[in-house]
Amino acid sequence: MFRIADDQLLGFPPEARAIIRALLAENERLRLENERLAVEVERLTARCVELESRLGKTPRNSSLPPGSQHPHAKPAPRKPKSKRKRGGQLGHKKHERPLIPTERCDDVETLKPAECRRCGVKLSGSDPEPLRHQVWELPEIKPHVTEYRRHRLPCPGCGETTCAALPPGVPVGQSGPRLVALVGLLMACFRQSKRRTAEFLESLLGQSCCPALTVKMQNQVAAALRPAYEELAAQLPRQEHVNADETPTKENNGKAWLWTFVAQCFTVFAIRPTREATAVDELLTEAFAGVVTCDRAKMYWRIGRLQWCWAHLIRDFQALIDGNDKRAKWLGQRLRRAAGKLFEHWADYRAGTISRAAMVRRMGPVRRKVEWLLLRGMQSDSPAARGMCRELHEHRDWLWMFLRHEGVEPTNNAGERALRHAVIWRKLSFGTQSAAGSRFVETMLTTIETCRQQGRNVFDYVTAAVQAHFARQTTPSLVPRA
Q1: What is the pLDDT of residues 353-378, one digit of tens each?
Q2: Which residue has the higher pLDDT, 84 or 131?
Q3: Of 5, 8, 410, 438, which residue is 20 to 30 A from 233 by alpha carbon distance?
Q4: Cα(182)–Cα(241) distance, integer angstroms
């Protein structure tokens, strides 16, 4: 910066010295202002880049859920639209509901023609193979009400009165086990509100009900199923492989998180107030020695045995392709292509066309290609590509855990499928209003998904659990027995 010493100004008139000093001060002020503006421009430029990257995010290149994108905004399908009309095509194989055995029918009506349809002659006899036609109809739906008359009798000796007790298993309230189980499933499995559930009972079943009564029955279902839930949660640390995922929800108008842990034969849901690793520590505990399949969220890192989901990685690769950096685009295209080869080999193995040993052998070139590309990406000028590649390369063992552990898949589809029902429920209900409501939700979601995995009838199981609860008996277990 240009400066003039005071002794250099001695030769100038006082008026000139004052003007020179004023100009120098103004020059210094402008210099500082330019430096401030340069910093501000740099900050705003970085902000613009960040906002532009957000505008370009879709479910295909980020962790946004598919439902967040409008159907009209989705890219056109690669496969051209068929010119065929909707519905079954001419000559296709007929699909119809199979007839049940005659012995299982409630009523059987024999129909015989009285006369010939051509000449009118009376007909007699029987067809050895009559045309069978079955009609399914709902019976008249009405509640079954049992009245228990409890007599109170005096003692002829001491005069004390004694009232008869209810039989074992009879609830002290007015709702039986099947009704309580139905209400719990209507709200949790079929995603109905408490008011709609009460309307359903009144309109279709003739059962008088109000939203407050559904809350009472909800608490009864949660109490009946809770021992089975806690038994399943205690089994999580013993599993060899678990799929984990989480999604935000609401509890009492505050933020909470719904966690899911999917084992081979059961699933455990849990609602916690935080997304921190405390939920992982609480449910998996230090005794867990298996592999967790998950996304790249850092709360799972402390486990140390992870399989990162390649479906999530493909979205990250697509984000590089959709960006403005040409080198990052080149890198993303080649990583995406390598991921495609990975899924080709995995699909062949799942279909049974190649053995596991052949699949592992074919993955060798794919692995070398991916890790070489990650090394290239660590030298990229793009901060996003450089950071992602460094993280993936430093933890590259977590990309290939499925090659070393049979039963581990390269994606977290099992966790996301289990969470889908819960996400739809959350969108309809806007979360829970209390901790008791959260316990009901996590317990019912666990029961519903576990029964689906085990091929069990969820209504029969919940009914049996409520019956055991009313009779003060042990809750039926959901833990699969060897």
Answers
A1: 999 999 999 999 999 999 999 999 99
A2: 131
A3: 410
A4: 33
Quickly tell me which residue has 């049974």 as its tokens.
352
The encoded tokens of residue 113 equal 């023609």
